[in-house]
Every structure is written in structure tokens, then in C-alpha cells.
Amino acid sequence: MKINEILKDTLDICRRNLILFVPMLAAILVVGLLTLIIAGSAVPLIGAFDPGLAGDGATPESALAGTQAIIRGLMVLMILSALVIFFAHGMTLGMANDAIQGRPVSLRDGWRDTLERMVSLAIAVILTGLLVGIGTALFILPGLILGFFLMFTFAAIMVDGKDALQAFRTSIRVVLSHFGTVFVLFLVMVALGALNWLVLRVVGRVPVAGPILTILIGAAFGAYLTVFLLQAYLILRETPSTPSAEA
């Protein structure tokens, strides 16, 4: 498998189907809105930590209650954000598969396919989040390893119609069968992510237009990486075993 060809094909697919960027763009906007809403609801709790703002009402008990409320709000935000982002990821996978197979690409079909697999996606998001989250808390490395082995989970759900547990097994099987190739793919995605981070840091400094450009570039990168991952999955699942990936 030649990774440079997959990178070029992915760019070509995205250029010919700009609609693939829409789900990720919508997800970023929704997460931003959720963040504003939850952050705004936390503003009244600031008084629990500042006697100057709350007068005589600021007590250790009120500060503890405020802390607990903020933590709950952050947890809700993290869960909702993960669901929104991964549903958008799933929708992009479904649309990208249509593009790769030569079928018409539309938001309506992508949304329909996502709704049909909503339960499996939700279970996969929750289980993946718990496993990777716990693994990350255990010195980070276990979380990275789990993420590595589960990287094809959502592709298996959206393309092959598998449920969450079947998709876990499929992802692990593909990774184990093509470990060297998948490891190189993983490193490529990490490198692309680092490049995207640098670009966003630079673009974010642009006056006025910076935030808008950051959102657009983030959505484009998310869609590109999703299509890249899907193409790799479609090739690997049909290949019994590959010793390595070619640059």
C-alpha cells in the first residue's frame, strides 16, 4: 500500500466533493455554541469563590458546591462534544464511502446513514471515550495504544454496518493483521495533526479573519483525515496481510 497515493487520492476526493467538509464544520460550530452556553451558565458561580463579588454569601460550602457544578458542566460539555464530533465523523465516513464507490454524495444520504447507525455510534463513542480516557489517565501511553487499536472502529460501523462490539473486534483484527502498515499510517496522521496545529496557530493570529479561518481549516482537516482513514481501511480490510507500507 502506497501512502503517498492515498494522500493524493484523498485530496482529489475532497476537492471533487467539497460537501464532505460540511458535517465537521457544523460539528465545530455546535461544539462552540455548547461551550458558550455552558460557560455562560458557570458565570454566576464565580461569586462562590470571590467574597468581593458574593458579599457575605461566599463560604467554603458554597465554593465546594460551585466547584462541583463546574465539574459537572465540564463533564456534560465533554460528553456532548464527543458525541457531536464523532457523529460528524461517522456522517463524513458514510458520505466519503459514497464518493469512493462512485455514488452521488449528499448530506441527506449521509444523515440518513448516520441515523440508521446512531445507536452503534453512540455506544462506540461512549466505550471508546471511557477506554481511551482511562488509559490516558494511566500515564497517557495506554490511552494512545487503545486509540491506535480502535482507530478503524467507526469506519467498520459506517461502511460495514457492524455494531459497536463487532466494530471493535474488526478494528483490532485489521490493526493486528497489518501492524507495520497501520503504525506507519498512525505516524502519518500524527504528523498531519502536528502540521495542522502549526497552521492553526499561525492563522489564529490573523486579525479579524483569524477565528473564521481557524474554523474552516479545522473542518477541512477533519474531513481530509476522515477520508484518508477510510481509504486505508477499505484497502486493508481486503488484504489478508501486508508486511509494510510504502511511502
What is the secondary structure topology, with strand pairs?
Elements: H1 3-16, H2 22-42, H3 51-54, H4 60-100, H5 107-116, H6 118-137, H7 141-149, H8 153-160, H9 164-177, H10 179-203, H11 210-237
Task: Explain what the structure shows.
- The protein has eleven helices and no strands.
- It has one domain.
- Helix 2 (22-42) packs antiparallel against helix 4 and helix 10 runs antiparallel to helix 11 (210-237).
- With 247 residues, it is mainly α.
- Helix content is 79%, strand content 0%.
* Total beta strands: 0
Distance between the termini: 8 Å
Q: How much strand?
A: under 5%
- The chain-level structural class is mainly alpha
Please state the overall shape, judged from the principal axes of the Cα atoms. Answer: globular
Helical percentage? over 70%
If you compute it from the alpha carbons, what radius of gyration comes out, rounded to the nearest whole angstrom?
21 Å
Largest sheet at a glance?
none
Rounded average pLDDT = 86
Number of domains: 1
Taken in chain order, the helices and strands follow as: HHHHHHHHHHH
Short recap of the structure:
The chain has helices spanning 3-16, 22-42, 51-54, 60-100, 107-116, 118-137, 141-149, 153-160, 164-177, 179-203, 210-237.
Notable characteristics:
mainly alpha, 247 residues, 79% helix
